[in-house]
């Protein structure tokens, strides 16, 4: 079995910045409430670019940083909860946009844990030798599925994308962990797709095709599984938390991250945080944060980094990686 290394990163966010103050002209809220409850100051909102447009821009940047041509990619996996369409997948659209004509393409749906699931899927395919060079992207235009009248949700989310290029190598991904629970808490975070309404049935479903969330329940779930996922990915690896240089958490709420840092007695400086600028970009948040770290020159060869996410489904997971570039 080969190992898998990350050889390039990229990201893209829409240009339009929406501040908390601007949101307070749309729903009854305030900069003070949003920033103290979540740590978010502003977010990017698409003025028409779709999920595939954001994903393609992040992907091209990741390819450039990996010094690979799009034609070298044989697998594209896109994590998204806000695809362009049911059919085709966003990955197939991105294939055309970037000219990755030799790739197999599909999407993965695991809400805010989507990127962890997509990354792990690509890792397994590369380890078996089935594919050589994979492009994994998290991309969201969540503004399409926001209820802009609901202050409980619309202040939290933003649009953006992040990408990674992976290839077989000697070292890199040390351990991956994924978990799901569709039994308890499926309704904590919800957004219906098309309703079942055909001429052969009567349907009176109250369909909510915008995101709804039970914030307090998600908060309790998030702090629990984020802490356990960090511990899980260290188990059986001969690494302890002291060996970890950075943790790249799903960027949902600064209070969730602070809570986990306190619970596991981890220095807050180990957590990379950029949710103040982008809000919660769901499947895009981890690769967007990682690319920002890479551009800032924070990552050094040999660093050990944990990616950790949680989201609707419920889903959660983590990846422990040795940085090799
Ligand atoms: N502005 C002003 N007031 C608000 C706002 C707002 N934007 N939103 C809610 N409120 C009000 C509520 O109506 C409530 O008022 P009430 O007491 O009169 O009923 C009050 O503020 C307090 O609301 P709480 O829900 O108690 O606030 P809390 O401190 O729990 O913070 C929050 C809410 C930020 C949503 C928090 O629970 C949280 O972060 N939860 C996790 C959310 C999360 O991480 N979601 C992403 C999951 S990942 C994925 O898969 C998408």
Descriptive keywords:
single chain, 325 residues, alpha/beta, Peroxisomal Thiolase, Chain A, domain 1, 2 domains, five-stranded mixed sheet, four-stranded mixed sheet, 23% strand, binds acetyl coenzyme *A
If you had to describe this structure to a student in words, what would you say it looks like?
The protein is α/β, with parallel strands linked by helices and 325 residues long. The protein has 2 domains: 172 residues, 3-Layer(aba) Sandwich (Peroxisomal Thiolase, Chain A, domain 1); 148 residues, 3-Layer(aba) Sandwich (Peroxisomal Thiolase, Chain A, domain 1), CATH 3.40.47. 31% of the residues lie in helices and 23% in strands. The strands form 4 sheets. The chain has a 5-stranded mixed beta sheet with strand order 1-7-6-4-5, with helices on both faces. β12 and β13 form a beta hairpin. The chain is globular. The chain starts with a strand and ends with a strand. Bound molecules: acetyl coenzyme *A. The site of acetyl coenzyme *A (ACO) has 25 residues, from α2, α6 and α7. Acetyl coenzyme *A binds next to α2, α6 and α7.
């Amino acid at each position: 079995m080969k190992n898998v290394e990350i050889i390039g990163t990229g990201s893209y966010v829409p240009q339009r910045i929406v501040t908390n103050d601007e949101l307070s002209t749309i729903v009854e809220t305030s900069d003070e409430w949003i920033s103290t409850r979540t740590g978010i100051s502003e977010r990017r909102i698409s003025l028409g670019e779709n999920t595939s447009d954001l994903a393609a821009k992040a992907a091209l940047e990741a390819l450039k940083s990996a010094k690979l041509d799009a034609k070298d990619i044989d697998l594209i996996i896109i994590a998204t909860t806000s695809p362009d369409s049911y059919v085709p997948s966003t990955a197939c659209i991105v294939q055309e946009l970037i000219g990755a004509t030799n790739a197999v393409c599909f999407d993965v749906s695991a809400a805010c844990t989507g990127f962890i699931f997509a990354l792990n899927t690509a890792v397994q395919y590369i380890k078996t030798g089935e594919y050589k060079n994979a492009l994994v992207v998290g991309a969201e235009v969540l503004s399409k599925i926001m209820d802009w009248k609901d202050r409980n949700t619309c202040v939290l989310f933003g649009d953006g994308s992040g990408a990674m290029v992976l290839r077989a190598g000697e070292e890199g991904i040390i351990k991956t962990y994924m978990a799901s629970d569709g039994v308890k808490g499926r309704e904590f975070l919800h957004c219906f797709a098309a309703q079942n309404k055909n001429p052969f049935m009567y349907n009176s479903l109250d369909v909510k095709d915008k995101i709804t969330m039970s914030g307090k329940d998600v908060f309790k779930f998030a702090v629990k599984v984020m802490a356990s996922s960090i511990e899980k990915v260290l188990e059986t690896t001969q690494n302890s938390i002291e060996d970890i240089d950075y943790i790249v958490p799903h960027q949902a709420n600064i209070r969730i991250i602070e809570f986990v840092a306190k619970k596991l007695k981890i220095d807050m400086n180990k957590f990379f945080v950029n949710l103040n600028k982008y809000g919660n970009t769901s499947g895009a948040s981890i690769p967007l944060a990682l690319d920002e770290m890479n551009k800032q020159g924070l990552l050094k060869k040999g660093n050990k980094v944990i990616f950790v996410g949680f989201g609707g489904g419920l889903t959660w997971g983590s990846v422990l990686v040795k940085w090799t570039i």
